Fold this sequence. Notes:
Elements: H1 2-18, H2 25-45, H3 47-60, H4 68-80, E1 84-87, E2 96-102, E3 106-112, H5 145-163, E4 167-174, H6 183-188, E5 197-200, E6 218-226, E7 229-235
Parallel strand pairs: 3-4, 3-5
Antiparallel strand pairs: 1-2, 2-4, 6-7
Helix pairs in contact: 1-2, 1-5, 2-5, 3-4, 3-5
Amino acid sequence: xxxxxxxxxxxxxxxxxxxxxxxxxxxxxxxxxxxxxxxxxxxxxxxxxxxxxxxxxxxxxxxxxxxxxxxxxxxxxxxxxxxxxxxxxxxxxxxxxxxxxxxxxxxxxxxxxxxxxxxxxxxxxxxxxxxxxxxxxxxxxxxxxxxxxxxxxxxxxxxxxxxxxxxxxxxxxxxxxxxxxxxxxxxxxxxxxxxxxxxxxxxxxxxxxxxxxxxxxxxxxxxxxxxxxxxxxxxxxxxxxxxxxxxx
Length: 248
């Protein structure tokens, strides 16, 4: 997690600093290198917070649309850090968007928060050993994404405040990803309309770290069945890293 959190903070810092400064590239690159080093140090200094967020979400282990404790914990944490939090977005009680800053670029950073059924597991155990037999648990690592996102964003926020770097940071959760992928509803309701870059994080296997641009076409159905017809809409998130919603 440490390696990926550091990498994420650098991805966030680069567009925030260089946006609209192409003519001053050489000078900006020197400045960027110094700020990158500070971002790395800030991430390391916040490693305990990352561990706490990771463990908290793991202990909550909430299924899709039931992420009540995760919602309360994350939104309160971000509000204490100076973010403006809009709660219950797209008509989803456990969904939220937290923003800080102003102007461009607008950088959105997201990660899922729901767990999966019957995946209860003691932490740090490499074989099946549930805490509660048959209970839900974070068998896909959705407890880790918000931890690294928040620590990375806080590192960048600190530098943006001190250096007076313009831009807006936006954190958001993937609610009920295992069920219907609520990201599509966020797109439908315009929450990514003005986003310049969307970075989505998800745990990988073998502790690996990778990155890249994912251009995706999203299909989703919304509304109710009326006279035997479904309302279907096609969404182009513009390579923002949003992925598809299973239609139910």
